Amino acid sequence: MEISLTVNGVLKTVAVTDVNTPLLWIVRDTLGLKGTKFGCGKAACGACTLHVDGEAVRSCSFPVKFAEGKEVTTIEGLGNRDNPHPVQQAWIAEIVPQCGYCQPGFMMATAALLNKVPNPTDEDIDKNIINVCRCGTYYRMRKAIHKAADLQLNRESNESKEL
Amino acid sequence: MKLQPIYIFLAISVVGLLFAWANTPKISTYEIVAKESQNSNDDYDKMMDVLTHPRCMNCHPSDHIPKQGDDSHPHYFGMARGEDDHGFEATNCNTCHQSENNLNSGVPGAPHWALAPASMAWEGLTRAEIAERLLDKSTNGNRSHKELVEHMTEDDLVLWAWEPGIHANGEQRTLPPVSKEDFKKAVENWFANGAVIPSK
């Protein structure tokens, strides 16, 4: 069966033998986007977090059939070296990663949070950013989330001034 | 001639037995009353056996925290009701739960997966208190009896209790102690008979 979905702004059609294949494996193995990570396979750790129609989902537990016709954004589509997303800028500025394996999931979860709550409090962060980091980079991540919020608000403010 | 005491005793016993036999109601009268009463309570009991089972009760919390498993432990990761019964702004039910069970990850799912509204908090209540909340329009989502029957016998999320999928370890989740068909009949009968709460 063929599934059509838009990944990072590009329409893709993939052939699958099992429509219940996790979206994670389609993104990583079929489309070759290795930024999204496999952690637990139980929707528990959040390493596989990406966006489907702007909502954060755990792609290890998201059948590809539910992505039909949807907009999927992975860490590769969040931003790039020339135009990094505020979350990516903040992560670099605060030198957040240690081993780095879980960080794409955290960054995608943070980007989803900032879309809903542009200036999150510590309580908002505690409630919404519930991924797991074995290195314990939570303290630096909290600083980076606040910085990302500032960067994003400044960017939006500058964009509105240019208009 | 003097009567022996034994003959007097036997005569009184025979008269007593005849009197008792004459005043004994027909057994069929008792059968009908007993059967009706038993059925009414049976329907209520069957319905409550299901509503108080973890497959149902875990999503009717009184502390705004969904529960998991047969031990009804708090949902992992600090998940809670949030503003709209779907969790928090960016991390909500649908971050992990989809419209059907996921047999790869063991994450349960059904259409409109969410906590029951706070007004439908049943955790910690007695069966009679649950039934009162169920029937009270101010706590049941403004549902009539007819709408309650439809909700309880047709809603996909309610009926998920009989197709709950597997745990993360691959083991089947336990089912309510009453079959789906028997539950539906019990709900229909209980409402059809006036939705009487037995303890009242």
TrEMBL record, chain A:
Residues 1-78 form the 2Fe-2S ferredoxin-type domain. Keywords: 2Fe-2S, Iron, Iron-sulfur, Metal-binding, Oxidoreductase. It holds the Pfam family Fer2_2. InterPro entries: 2Fe-2S-bd, 2Fe-2S-bd_dom_sf, 2Fe-2S_ferredoxin-like_sf, 2Fe-2S_ferredoxin-type, 2Fe2S_fd_BS, Beta-grasp_dom_sf, Diverse_Oxidoreductases. GO terms for molecular function: 2 iron, 2 sulfur cluster binding; metal ion binding; oxidoreductase activity. It comes from the Bacteria. The keyword Signal does not apply. PROSITE patterns: 2FE2S_FER_1, 2FE2S_FER_2. PANTHER family: BLR6218 PROTEIN (PTHR44379:SF2), OXIDOREDUCTASE WITH IRON-SULFUR SUBUNIT (PTHR44379). This is Isoquinoline 1-oxidoreductase, alpha subunit.
Automatic annotation (TrEMBL), chain B:
InterPro entries: Multihaem_cyt_sf (IPR036280). It comes from the Bacteria. This is Cytochrome c domain-containing protein. It comes from Maribacter ulvicola.
